[in-house]
Amino acid sequence: MSKGLVYVFTGDGKGKTSAAFWTGVRLAARGKKVAAVQFYKEARWPTAEQDISKKFKNFKVYLSGKGFYKLPTDHAKPAEHKQAAEAGLKKAAELIGKVDLLILDEINNAVKDKLIDLTALIDLISKRGQTHLILTGRGATRRVLEGADLVTEMKKVKHPFDQGKKAVKGLDY
Question: At the N or C end, where does the chain have fewer CB atoms within 10 A?
Fold first, then answer.
């Protein structure tokens, strides 16, 4: 088999993580091994993605985040965010070759926020072998976009948050 494909879901619109995880569920339903490393989400946020491992034995989710960086809800120090992101990248490297699909959720943000070095991400991508990769998050770099097999940019046209509406459990997280 040839090298795994690289998908990138980027842009300022909603749906990047949803698209990545649904692709993962689709593959898991076909009996393939799937893993996701989430670079910002943490255990104290009860997201539906965390429940996927309970539903699918062949789909594991690893949380390596300390929350969203430099946003009003940020509770961690920059060094803690960087350490968590680097631990997530290390976990991702361990999973290469052991799963059919590896989702790197919000990794584009982690690179943009300088929590992960772009060179380290490019190195990981180059070592993917037959493992397919999905990279999500805003601000994907030109190098990542150029090296990808598929790029989808989510564009926000309208969002309930803009009208002051809160996220809906199950629909948004």
Answer: N
